[in-house]
Specification:
Nuclear Transport Factor 2, Chain: A, alpha+beta, 10% strand
Length: 831
């Protein structure tokens, strides 16, 4: 009853009543319901009384200030623009999710009339909120429901400052004889008992006994045993949470489970399942999941075997709904006791022990911490001012074999672990954490093939987070009127995904033109636009709206056994005459790839140069000619080459594709083969070019390179500077000589400027733990640098191959950076 009264308070608030008047309202609703001479169930009776009460005050308005998110407040205010009957119809059915049959009876309307109200209200709301898609409107109202559930109304026992509207409400509805609230509760229970008793009296159906039943039938003994099992699980869950019955029954997951239990063991359901005991048992298993604590849910799977994906999805759906509610419940307790929470404690990892640091803990806080393992939660511990905030603990589930074999659980669970990613005060995670979250969400929403109910939750999460990173709190996005660097990088990174690029690319262009201060496209962005782009992507209609997104790529696999470049010889002859890029417009990327290698076969570095995309690393034509050496002949080293539509990838404004290549030599090293597998990129006019990469490779032993490295080492030891164009391989050999000579000064001189110098013990440990020692076991060194990334910045990596004991191999990976003095090494903390 207490939970139902709280629902009615929120119902009044949703319909425009001031928050401080809702307590008076519910007391008057109870009194009004007590006077009704109907046989309706208590819930319907109270809602009908509430609707009648509200109907007398159609002009009630509130500002929705208790609602956390701006877009949800806008939805709330839009609702208040509706006539009161339409408003209540939408709130009951579309926002609060009550069945149309219940809502129409509460408003004393025929169902057809109720549906007419709903349709009319939806049209008016869509116009008010400027939403064209009815599905988007439905989502918008679902978001509002979530916000309303988080609204904290004033305590019911607090003194109420009555307004004229409240006075009027009391005068008009003051009963001649007031009945105590407890009488109303008792009357409601008696009414409900009468209904149940009557149903039972007329119910002559009975399941067969074990001796009467045939194979596969549900027996009375089985049903009795399972009903008893539910009661035992319910009592056990209550005790594990350390809750009294009143508090336990107020949880929505408990109320839902109790309702489901009553329906499952009703006459109609038992009769329906009398010949299918297995199906009834499966539904009973789900019922147990519903009533268990989160920890108990995990334990219920510990000894069970393989589960179908749809059952696992349902388990996760129930688990997340439950932990969402318990997270809100626990956070409210922690918030109320925030001053008692220590700023730092070694016990936050084991909250049951945290009580040792809180000698004067309140009873509710002590109860929460004592039962902590059952809640499936963890402290965030990221902000000392918000120690009451929690995340979901998914470790228990991740360890279960069912989740380890589920193809998508590893993506769903981490997404919800940190949800919500923000609150009214700002971000709860670092913005760069959202890159992985968007990657997982988009895969699940677009490519994950199962029809999981969890996708609805992910879709809501996707839209809310995208709105927050673009039009959320100014303090989180801007600093002194300019978009923060970390948000700029986040936007550019996310533009690699087509549904986000469709919105972000024009925003970024306009922001860059204004010094990252203003964008008309961002100003015009509306809530729901991100879902519209997502829908177009799901339907395969988005790419045509993007730069180079409508390129008609042809997937193709070409066998190179007898390949002779005939398909590109004519194009090669025409392109070589003028190097006119327009000749390449619309040419398939695989043909540009073959054109590049045909020029290599013809020993034509100038044509190869003009087929290379612009790059910070790309040398002048004269330098390229001077340094040019033929790369391995494609047809002599590979079996086949393939390009597929699925290989295309957007990198900010560029679209990239990298051919798949099968090599003649099975043991050919990746870096040695890389010249045969360059990326192809297009940025405008459907012109594909070969991405330039600076590559150097040395197969050990290489006496000449070792000699050059020693000379470079000696120069540095004599405090001389190396030429700025010193090869990165020479720089690498100089580092190896310095480590071999235990010369920390030279080793430190080869680090990126600003890096703290390391002592000789560090370099000894580095050599020992990373196999970097001497030259006897060195097998190869390869270097690659590219600026194909969202910032067009140079990324360089070095790979050193060592042979270690037992003919095994060790690959040492290092990052390099081009500085004013030439190539130098970046040092990472893991070293």
């Amino acid at each position: 009853m207490a939970q139902l009264i709280e629902e009615l308070r929120r119902f009044a608030y949703q319909n425009g009543m001031a928050a401080e008047q809702t307590d008076i309202f519910t007391r008057q609703v109870q009194e009004r319901a007590g006077k009704m001479d109907t046989k309706d169930d208590p819930k319907l009776k109270l809602y009908r009384a509430a609707a009648k009460q509200l109907a007398q005050f159609p002009d009630l308005q509130n500002d929705g200030s208790l609602i956390g998110f701006q877009e949800d407040r806008e939805s709330h205010l839009a609702l208040q623009s509706l006539p009161v009957n339409k408003r209540m119809a939408v709130v009951l059915h579309l926002v609060n999710g009550l069945e149309i049959s219940f809502a129409s009876r509460a408003l004393q309307l025929e169902e057809q009339e109720m549906l007419g109200y709903i349709d009319s209200a939806k049209s008016e709301l869509a116009k008010t909120l400027a939403i064209e898609d009815q599905q988007e409107l439905t989502k918008r109202l679902e978001f509002l429901d979530k916000s309303i559930k988080r609204v904290k109304l004033p305590d019911r026992e607090a003194p109420i400052e009555e307004s004229p509207a409240a006075d009027e409400l009391q005068k008009e509805q003051a009963p001649k004889v007031k009945k105590p609230a407890i009488w109303l509760v008792a009357a409601s229970i008696a009414l409900l008992a009468g209904v149940v008793g009557a149903s039972f009296f007329f119910d002559s159906f009975r399941l067969p006994s074990a001796s009467e039943a045939s194979e596969g039938q549900l027996t009375q003994e089985m049903a009795d045993e399972m009903e008893q099992q539910y009661e035992e699980k319910r009592e056990n869950a209550k005790q594990r949470l350390g809750a009294e019955e009143k508090q336990f029954a107020e949880f929505t997951f408990v109320a839902n489970a109790d309702q489901e239990k009553d329906e499952l063991f009703s006459r109609s359901e038992l009769q329906q399942h009398k010949d299918d005991a297995e199906l009834f048992t499966q539904q009973m298993e789900e019922l147990i999941w519903m009533i268990e604590t989160p920890k108990g849910m995990g334990e219920s799977l510990a000894n069970s075997g393989h589960m179908p994906i749809d059952e696992m999805d349902r388990f996760m759906e129930l688990y997340l709904m439950k932990t969402n509610e318990l997270q809100d419940f626990a956070e409210n307790i922690l918030k109320d006791n925030e001053e008692q929470l220590p700023a730092a404690s070694e016990h936050y990892g084991e909250p049951q022990l945290l009580i040792e640091d809180i000698p004067d803990a309140s009873a509710e806080l002590e109860q929460l911490l004592a039962a902590w393992p059952e809640y499936g939660l963890r402290f965030r511990l990221t902000d000392p001012d918000r120690m009451h905030l929690l995340t979901k603990d998914i470790e228990q589930l991740q360890q279960l074999p069912q989740f380890q074999t589920h193809p998508f659980a590893g993506m769903y669970l981490p997404l919800v672990m940190f949800h919500p990613y923000f609150d009214e005060q700002g971000w709860l995670v670092e913005p760069n954490h959202l890159i992985g979250a968007f990657d997982a969400m988009l895969y699940l929403l677009i490519d994950e093939p199962t029809d999981s109910a969890l996708k609805t939750e992910i879709e809501v999460m996707y839209e809310q987070i995208f709105w927050q990173i673009t039009k959320g709190s100014d303090s989180e996005i801007y600093e002194e009127g300019t978009v923060k660097p970390e948000i700029r990088k986040l936007w550019k990174t996310l533009s690699s995904y087509d549904p986000l690029a469709a919105i972000l690319l024009p925003v970024i262009d306009e922001m860059e033109d204004s010094g990252w201060q203003q964008s008309d496209s961002l100003d015009r962005l509306e809530y729901g636009d991100s879902l519209e782009m997502l829908k177009l992507e799901q339907q395969g209609e988005l790419s045509s709206t993007l730069p180079n997104g409508d390129f008609p790529l042809e997937s193709e696999l070409v066998d190179l056994a007898d390949f002779d470049y005939d398909r590109v010889k004519e194009l090669y002859a025409r392109f070589k005459q003028s190097y006119d890029m327009d000749l390449l417009a619309g040419v398939q990327p695989l043909d540009v790839y073959f054109l590049y290698f045909y020029a290599n076969q013809e020993k034509d570095p100038e044509t190869m140069y003009h087929l290379l995309a612009d790059s910070k690393l790309k040398p002048s034509l004269e330098q390229y000619r001077a340094d040019w050496e033929p790369i391995p002949e494609l047809t002599e080293n590979t079996l086949w080459v393939e390009i597929q539509q699925e290989m295309m990838q957007r990198i900010y404004k560029k679209v990239m594709i990298q051919p798949a290549v099968a090599y003649e030599e099975q043991d050919i090293g990746f870096r040695r083969s890389n010249p045969l597998q360059p990326a192809l990129v297009t940025e405008q006019d459907h012109i594909w070019l070969v991405q330039y990469e600076q590559q150097e490779f040395s197969q050990a032993p290489d006496p000449e390179l070792q000699k050059q490295g020693m000379e470079a080492y000696k120069a540095l030891a004599n405090q001389e500077k190396l030429p700025k164009n010193t090869s990165p391989l020479v720089v690498t050999y100089a580092l190896l000589h310095a480590i071999e000579q235990e010369d920390a000064a030279v080793a430190n001189a080869l680090l990126v400027p600003g890096t703290e110098g390391q002592k000789i013990e560090f370099w000894r440990n580095f050599a020992g733990s990373h196999q970097v020692a001497g030259f006897d076991n060195l097998r190869s060194v390869s270097f690659t640098a590219t600026d194909l990334n969202i910032e067009n910045e140079v990324d360089a990596s070095l790979e050193i191959l060592y042979e270690i004991e037992g003919a095994s191999e060790w690959y040492e990976h290092l990052n390099m950076k081009k500085t004013l003095d030439g190539w130098r090494f970046e040092l990472f903390p893991s070293y």
